[in-house]
């Protein structure tokens, strides 16, 4: 299986952000999105995750295959870490959370209410969530924010394991994770300036 984008254009708040984006990601491959702040990385990732439609172009291989980790951690603060992972495992028809807990050193925190965790601990739990989805394409937006060096290592190891198992990873990150990955710089794909200004998609704020 593969994720294939052909001549994709994306918009935020009705304003075109990127155009002419084409790439293919095969099983076992990672692709890192680069580009300055505001260049459209998040918008492209949200489109691939199915949170918004592309303006034009075709996107193949993403439906029912993507697990998305955006800026929010996707955790319920009044559930424990284990309960959160069990919840997400159930959503995706999976059961085992032990591997995910172990991969991010979360066993000692398994029974803690997620709302009482530190920012980095929450981020570890949010990333562990990906491992209980069983989904082949991990789409990650700045995944290492709040992580200390040890946790960055845990994350890199989790991604490597996912790739070895034939999975794919698409990441927007400014950090060198030591992964063998293709780089896609979105800077060269800026959409032509539009006459529309000041719009926003508040529904997603
Ligand atoms: N909710 C929104 N409504 C309207 N425009 C938005 C909204 N969110 C972001 N934008 C604009 O869309 C453009 C692309 O933003 P996007 O978040 O995709 O960039 P990014 O490359 O991920 O940036 P960063 O590196 O800062 O995270 C920017 O000009 C941004 O100001």
UniProtKB/TrEMBL annotation:
One of its GO terms (biological process) is cytochrome complex assembly. InterPro entries: AAA+_ATPase (IPR003593), ABC_transporter-like_ATP-bd (IPR003439), ABC_transporter-like_CS (IPR017871), ABC_transptr_haem_export_CcmA (IPR005895), P-loop_NTPase (IPR027417). Residues 3-205 form the ABC transporter domain. Keywords: ATP-binding, Cytochrome c-type biogenesis, Membrane, Nucleotide-binding, Translocase, Transport. It holds the Pfam family ABC_tran. PROSITE patterns: ABC_TRANSPORTER_1 (PS00211), ABC_TRANSPORTER_2 (PS50893). The keyword Nucleotide-binding applies. This is Heme exporter protein A.
